[in-house]
Design a protein that fits this description.
The complex is a heterodimer. Chain A has one helix and 21 strands. Chain A is mainly β. Chain A has two domains: about 30 residues; about 220 residues, YVTN repeat-like/Quinoprotein amine dehydrogenase (Methylamine Dehydrogenase, Chain H). Chain A starts with a helix and ends with a strand. By secondary structure, chain B is mainly beta. Chain B has two domains: about 80 residues, no CATH class; about 70 residues, no CATH class. Chain B contains one helix and 13 strands. The longest helix of chain B is centred in the first third of the chain and has 18 residues. Classes of the chains: A mainly beta, B mainly beta. The interface between A and B is large, with 49 and 48 residues. Strand 1 of chain A pairs antiparallel with strand 3 of chain B, so a sheet runs across the interface.
């Protein structure tokens, strides 16, 4: 009888140790899916965090459980009103671009994002990217974005207090689409107006450094010093490692 | 469930009402000026998803990267899968024909994309020959009007199938729908 008890005890301890190891192992490998998960441009409506796939539909933020990757199941639908356009995941937050503002969600629990606030701006088409404490938002005022058209802007929003974002800088653009940020560089797509390069060494004050009018640009992904640009002429890739150089690496032309 | 469906239908109906005001003869007083151009819906008649060999780039849309793989959406048509190990020499590997596509995201070897109102999942572990694994039908609301304002467009006809895009055309006849 005594032996039997000891045996059960040993098994139980072994099982616990095993479980412990399992959980610590899974957290050390990839707490958030890590490099498993790819990166989209600023105009994306799809994004993944952990085991959650997000789809920004015209009027909601939908959450799908992809724990079983081939059986996505919608677990949540956050209704947000009209004109929802883009989603940008950054650290523990989701930034949703809408025609009339930017929604900020706390994403600590990827399967249950919590709305923190809605930062409201003039009606426009407006992707958003975030780096550090600042969000960079382009506001396009053209046809399809705002009745009567009007001016377009690049806005810098201070996110020090996520519940109370503050506009710190605004400058006029032509007709912006996507936007990308990496270190001290900010890339703005001006559609047929080309690609603009801003220096954001002072993150509050983007300084225009270069306009490449011959590269129609719709969206960008800056990735390890390579900038991938998509536009009506094709896919262009550039190296941007030093302060001023910006070299074409390759292009896949539209046929 | 039934009430949910009814509510959904009602929502669609209301959206249609709001987005598509109809008027019979004269140019509507609150409508845009008619310049003999309008937009008409492109309907998905054959919604067959296919894995094709590399295709020419036509209308590049959104982009997505995962490791050395670069994905490029061809607006409304599908996704180019590109080996971008050497950004100086990207190589097209295959093309996923997905009607109405504009978005994508990848985790591991699984690619998630929109196929008009459907969500589709592919296995891209062999990027030269991705495999369709799953379709989740009618989960992404598709707008029944073009993404533009101050324009006329042909009123959608639900009997013709799902709308996967809009095209501009010249016409002497002013369509009844506008926004």
């Amino acid at each position: 009888m005594k032996i039997k008890h000891t045996f059960v005890y040993v098994i139980a301890v072994a099982a616990l140790l095993f479980l412990e190891q399992c959980s610590s192992e899974s957290t050390t490998i990839s707490p958030n899916g890590g490099a498993q998960i790819g990166t989209g441009g600023s105009l994306a409506r799809f994004a993944i965090s952990g085991n959650s796939l997000y789809i920004a539909t015209n009027q909601s933020l939908d959450v799908y459980d992809i724990t079983d990757p081939v059986a996505p199941a919608r677990t949540k639908k956050n209704m947000l009103g009209f004109g929802i356009e883009t989603i940008f995941p950054y650290q523990q937050n989701l930034f949703i671009g809408a025609n009339d503002g930017m929604y900020i969600f706390d994403n600590t629990k990827p399967d249950a994002p919590v709305l923190l606030t809605k930062y409201t701006h003039v009606m426009s088409c407006d992707p958003v990217v975030v780096q550090g404490k600042y969000a960079y938002v382009t506001l396009r005022g053209g046809s399809g974005c705002r009745l009567g058209g009007g001016r377009s802007f690049l806005d810098v929003v201070d996110l020090s207090d996520l519940r109370n974002p503050k506009l710190v800088n605004s400058q006029i653009l032509l007709a912006p689409f996507g936007i990308g940020v990496d270190g001290n560089k900010l890339f703005v797509c001006e559609g047929s107006g080309g690609l603009k390069l801003f220096d954001i060494s002072d993150p509050q004050k983007p300084m225009l450094k270069k306009t490449m009018a011959d590269i129609p640009a719709y969206d960008v992904i800056p990735n390890q010093k390579t900038l991938i640009v998509t536009g009506e002429k094709g896919i262009f890739q550039y190296r941007y490692d030093t302060a001023e150089t910006f070299d074409l690496l390759s292009k896949i032309a539209v046929e | 469930m039934k009430t949910k469906n009814t509510a959904f239908l009602l929502l669609i109906f209301l959206t249609a009402m709001l987005s598509c005001r109809e008027q019979e003869q004269d140019e509507p007083t609150d409508g845009p000026r008619f310049d003999k151009t309008a937009y008409r819906p492109i309907y998905a008649t054959l919604n067959n998803i296919e894995t094709l060999p590399p295709q020419p780039l036509r209308k590049p849309g959104k982009i997505y990267i995962r490791g050395n793989i670069l994905l490029v959406n061809d607006i409304g048509k599908g996704i180019h899968i590109i080996d971008n190990k050497d950004p100086k020499n990207p190589q097209k590997l295959s093309f996923l024909k997905i009607i109405g596509n504009s978005d994508m995201a990848v985790k591991g070897n699984f690619l998630y994309a929109d196929n008009a109102s459907d969500l589709v999942v592919f296995d891209i572990s062999n990027a030269s020959a991705p495999k369709l694994l799953k379709q989740v039908f009618d989960v992404i609301p598709v707008k029944n009007y073009p993404d533009l304002v101050q324009i006329y467009f042909d009123c959608p006809d639900a009997t013709k199938g799902k709308i996967v895009g809009w095209e501009k055309y010249d016409t002497e006849i002013r369509p009844r729908c506008y926004r």
